[in-house]
Prior knowledge:
Blueprint: H1 9-12, E1 16-17, H2 29-38, H3 51-61, E2 68-71, H4 74-85, E3 89-94, H5 98-105, E4 110-115, E5 138-142, H6 154-167, E6 170-174, E7 199-204, E8 217-220, H7 224-233, H8 241-250, H9 254-277, E9 281-283, E10 289-293, H10 298-303, E11 307-308, E12 310-311, E13 322-326, H11 330-354
Parallel strand pairs: 1-11, 3-4, 3-5, 5-6, 6-7
Antiparallel strand pairs: 2-8, 7-8, 9-10, 10-13, 12-13
Helix pairs in contact: 2-8, 3-8, 4-5, 4-7
Amino acid sequence: MRYTHGGDIYTYGEMLDFSVNINPLGPSKTVLNAAKEALLQSSAYPDSRCRKLREKLAGCLHAEEKTFVFGNGAAELLYTLVLAEKPKKALLPVPAFSEYEQALRTIECDIKYYQTTQNNCFCIDFDFLEELSEEVDILFLCSPSNPSGKKMDLAFLKEIADRCEQYRIRFVLDECFLDFEKTPESLFDQIDLSQYPHLFFLRAFTKTYAIPGIRLGFGMTSDEELLEKMEGMKQPWNVSVIAQKAGEAALDEAEHVAEMRQAVSAERKRIEKELKYLEIDFISSDVNFILLHSEINLFEELMQYGILIRDCTKDRGLGDGWYRIAVRRKEENERLLKASAKIVHKNKMKKEQTGGGQ
């Protein structure tokens, strides 16, 4: 089975990895120390209810403790949710995070794809509302979007949520990249969750706090019946002691996150400016990664410079020439841009020599 994600350093070895989208500042010392200290509790089973983490997260988000479910990364919760509900028909805008489709395939769910377009930055349009009907059981949306990096209008998201309540459609709203927005805005803060029982928010500690190797995600919904089913489906100790302690510590790292947002915003603008200069097409992003298009095989070419990027050429809804790069630290981004400039120059020279530049 083809590996469909970034971060595959185990296959490609020692590379500067731009294929995975996490906090470029890395995990904070506080989070790392909490994880190290948690190793001393390895002889004890984890709290299957994640009670301390649950209480602290509820306080941070001003939410009820009973609305949470925790997973070994957000991806696990996708599978747990579809196994709990076993929807018959799904609506899935593409391109999208591949695990939505993979999770739906495990229960042989019929999937209707909504193809977004480059002209609209691979965002859904208002005609999408017409796709929402009583025939649809579940909908997956990601805002900010993966892979385009565009955030959705909150008023539009609320309209979708209202339509899903009308037709009793499970609406899974993936906000795993929310914290990378310069000023994060969530639908969660605009509504009374108790009035939207079909809405399920999905978030993760992985990206924001740079701990993908620890694995910690969570979901929020007011649907107590769904939460009960999910708890019955998942393993009882799916979130390790280390993950729970790291998560608790991460919630105190507001300054670290604020520093990350500032750095990402500045570097993203600089990268996009250079991409424009190099005449590499891209979708202007709101977060910590950029979707770009080139006739040059940038995946293979950049590997020659020890740089790994995300090859999106086989992703549903994209195709040949599409790649994704993360926004990393300034010196790392500079290395990427210099290598890209050399590659573009080399290909221009090659075209001119063969008469292709006429």
